[in-house]
Amino acid sequence: MRSLFIVLVLAAAAMAQITMSDAQIKKIGIKVDTVHLINSEPMGPFIGLFEYSDRGSKNYTLSSEATVVELMKQTGDRVKKGEAICKIASSELLASRYELIDMRNRLKLAQEYAQKDAGLYKDGVISQRESQKSTLEVMSLQAKVGEIQNRFIFAGADTAPKDGMIFTIRSHKNGILAHAPIKTGEKIDPFVPYLKIADASAFSAYIKIPPKMIGSIQKGAGVMDKLGVPVGEVSAISSSVDMMNNSATAVATITKANEEYRAGTSSEFFIASSTIEKWILLPRVSVTKYKGKDICFVKTATGFVPQTVQIQKIYKEHIAVKPEDLALPAQVVTEGIINLKGILSGMGFE
After folding, report:
1. Is the pTM value of this prediction over 0.70?
2. In CATH, what number does 42-55+202-272 get?
3. How far apart, in whole angstroms, are the C-alpha atoms of residue 182 and residue 78?
4. Phi, psi angle pair for 44, to nearest 5°
5. May I ask the CATH class of domain 2-39+278-347?
6. Cα–Cα dist 28/37, whole Å
7. Whose CA is closest to 70, among 184, 201, 181?
């Protein structure tokens, strides 16, 4: 290893460039990570709870009580459009079914009368007003049929029952069950969504914010994960404080969902304040001291180059530096720094 260092130093002495091949980088155990530009100072960390977003989601409700009689899918399961989710017993849907059949029959009859009246008016047998009355009756019945059909759409139910008043509930879209009945025999309350189908990649994070910091957070502010990687933006901020935990809530729309995100789990977030200049976030482990200066090692096409940085703020897992310190995009060394510092010492780099 010592002979390797000597060769590398001699090859790089002219421009303080540490030249290494991929094989040498691997042998020494050097690893790199990408840096990120932020528009303002990140505040935090704050704890946020993941939930599936309402964007593009579908909620099912009933206007009267019902009972779950069979489960085919459960919360967290993926569903396809038209796939059966559960079966429910509902006297409301049964009454709506009979009403729908009656209205359809009346509509069919009204359409026949309207067609005949249109012919009679054309032949001059009846007045235009009488013909229009038939047309208006058809339109009224069409609206009533549509209103009854919407009851089934809102409930997610087939219009035809199975075994009396038992109705099959089906998915109206591809997605994931963000909320569903837990067991058979469970009661479904009126006007309370009993089932929600969400986009599997659409997340929101409900982030708890200390009251004194709410004034520094604005709608549209950038949201970063605990490593400083941008993941979304603030879409809403509560105007009140929860007295139970003495915190307000900022809702973040997640635009870069990580495969590790799961509804119901929590994570740490940073939120950008709109009052500070642009900074670059480096992994904290990438910054080291060298002869009284703060430096990091930047990856180049042929190896690495040491770069002095001006630290603006130190966080739990990253460090903010001035943007002029690094040219983006950039990758910095996070492992194997001690070896590069050894090489640097042999070069006499300041």
Report:
1. no
2. 2.40.30.170
3. 16
4. 140, -165
5. mainly beta
6. 29
7. 184
